[in-house]
Amino acid sequence: MYFLNALPGAIAEGLIWGLMAIGVYVSYKILDIADLTVDGSICTGACVCAVLITSGVPAWLSVIIAFAVGALTGVLTGLFHTALGIPSILAGILTQLILYSVNLSILGGKSLVAIDARSHTLLLHMSNNIGAIVAAALIIIAVIVCLWLFFYTEVGLTLKSTGDNPDMSRAQGVNVKFNKVLGLAIANGIVALAGALLAQYKGSANINDGRGAIVIGLAAIFIGLSVSMKIKPNFVVSLIGVIGGGIVYYIIYNFVVLLGLKTDYLKMLSAIIVALFLGVPYLKGEYFDRKKTMRAKAASAATKNAGGDTNA
Amino acid sequence: MLKITNLQKTFNAGTVNEKVALQGLDLTLQDGDFVTVIGGNGAGKSTLLNAIAGVWKPDCGTIEIDGNDVTYMPEHQRAKFLGRVFQDPMKGTAPDMEIAENLSIAARRGTKRKLIWGIKKAEREQYKELLATLGLGLETRLTTKVGLLSGGQRQAITLLMATLERPKLLLLDEHTAALDPKTAAKVLEITDQLVNENKLTTLMITHNMHDAITHGNRLIMMHEGRIVVDVSGEEKKKLTINQLLALFEKASGKEFANDRAILS
């Protein structure tokens, strides 16, 4: 009974994290960059949104500004990587660290800024989970439609090719460095947008929000793609799968809490889920490839013998 | 069309791995020249092509394409002058993207890409016709992911991509070396077809002496970062492999040390 009661909340929160996972999808799957900026930029989105709303800016405008600031954090990581030649993982870690200080100063030195849901009109809040689900779903649909349209434009196609084959892209006149910066901006803009929604849903922004967000994002991507790739491996289905992955993740999360696992262990659980999703296909490949090679060897040996016989 | 003056490049200068790849190379190509490049391992063939393509900057010297000094122009900017096909068939195409998407990216080489629809309807028809000329049955597979194709098919598509937007200079870096003999012959046939149809100025590296002699109107042989043999016109038409080896020995004072090239 408790679990059923918690379900709408889990879905609402799962949708928001699914949106964040779409941002991670853009950097990790499309650009082929494991972008650790995410842990910082989701918090930046939350902080910007919370501070703006509490100072009287309308919620919808705060969300748009949070997106823009998030995009800037992506630009910073992108420039670290492309202009200064820092490896992308390290570039993300550097920005993440910078953002910790930036987020603190956005919150005015406090570790938490609360948004009073009664005195401000919010796009979504945990006091009305059904409303939150509808609002989050609408925003997600808008984001997916925008991304879908964008990735079929001339610029969007070159963004895909940049992640898929940078050599080919350069040979075809694509500015790979610019595209990486652009892609990271889009990815972190979406992540910050999710952060802004999260702050409204929870009614606060905390300096520790978003720690391990990249891992949750990856977990949602792996859970989602393991299903959606079997249905139809195209862009929109993949993105919907990622959202689904976010929801499944949060349902599991709630279920595990219900079972009585101490919440202290939840981050460890997320990491283990991701490690399993990354590790199992690898081990499977190692094992099956070896078997396949052995079978192929046996088969070719057999045909060779047969061939030898006919020659003789 | 292409004018290279005193091009020099040393890799890992000042270390034990120092390697002088190009030492004062001069080369001028006329409009419509189809030049084959041959030479032993480490002669500087690929280094030359990469210098023209802008993969890295030379130590000194200048490279001009059609009157434009491109010596220090970034790789993606000078791509508007160049069509490139790599030795590795995996390098020239984006595997996770459709054939049509790959072609559409190539069709816009040298133009400013905008936020407008990436592939127009008319383009798909054009791509179908072009793919049909390859004779590989790819014209019905426009939406197939390139990663599902064979090395030869991918190399043929890369050739098409390199010539779709007519390049001032086509650079082929041993583009048949990684293919089996039959596929290699097919890809070479397609190469000749595309070069002749579009009258492209072409620089083709090959390890195969026979191919070097039978293709193009001019042949250059490289040794230790320099051009040591340069034959063209009637002289090239009559050239045999033995004559070529003799020319090389005379020019370099050494025997041609690449068994792979002689045997193939």
In short:
The complex is a heterodimer of chains A (312) and B (264). Chain A is built from eleven helices and two strands, in the order ααααβααααβααα.
Structural description of this entry:
In chain A, strands 1-2 form a two-stranded antiparallel ribbon. Chain A has 312 residues and is mainly α. Chain A is built from eleven helices and two strands. Chain A has helices spanning 2-30, 38-54, 59-82, 88-106, 129-150, 154-164, 166-171, 176-202, 213-231, 235-258, 266-311, and strands at 112-114, 204-206. The radius of gyration of chain A is 22 Å and the shape is globular. Helices cover 78% and strands 2% of the residues of chain A. Chain B has 264 residues and is α/β, with parallel strands linked by helices. Chain B contains ten helices and ten strands. In chain B, the strands form two sheets. A six-stranded mixed beta sheet of chain B has the order 6-7-8-3-9-10, with helices on both faces. A four-stranded antiparallel beta sheet of chain B has the order 2-1-4-5, with helices on one face. The mean pLDDT of chain B is 92. The interface between A and B is medium-sized, with 22 and 34 residues.
Shape of chain B: globular
Task: Quickly name the level 1 CATH class of chain B.
Answer: Alpha Beta
Look at the structure and give the mean pLDDT of chain A: 91
Distance between the termini of chain A: 77 Å
* Amino- and carboxy-terminal Cα gap of chain B: 31 Å
Oligomeric state as shown: heterodimer
What is the radius of gyration of chain A? 22 Å
Q: H/E element string of chain B?
A: EEEHEEHEHHHEHEHEEHHH
